[in-house]
Structure to design on (96 residues):
């Protein structure tokens, strides 16, 4: 039996998706692009299986983009913190 995220989390949300994406125009635009692609595929007569495969692939890529962005922010924060805590540390050095 498959358990979906909807089964694990109650449908009550504090903010709407519009509110959540208001400060993230890149995410909002990508979601619109994915929805537009889905609509275009359906209108062009693609099978629902093909539409699903294409949408799932785009959402997977979106997830990679989002996690990559989060990872970069975390790495940048760690670098700033390390530089504050250890200002004398050598930043760039050639490996031998």
């Amino acid at each position: 039996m498959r358990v979906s995220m909807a089964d694990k989390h109650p449908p009550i949300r504090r903010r709407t998706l519009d509110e959540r994406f208001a400060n993230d125009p890149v995410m909002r635009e990508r979601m619109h692009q994915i929805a537009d692609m889905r609509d275009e595929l359906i209108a062009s007569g693609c099978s629902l299986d093909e539409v699903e495969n294409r949408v799932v692939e785009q959402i997977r890529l979106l997830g990679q983009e989002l996690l990559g962005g989060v990872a970069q922010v975390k790495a940048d924060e760690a670098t700033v913190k390390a530089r504050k805590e250890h200002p004398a540390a050598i930043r760039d050095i050639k490996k031998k």
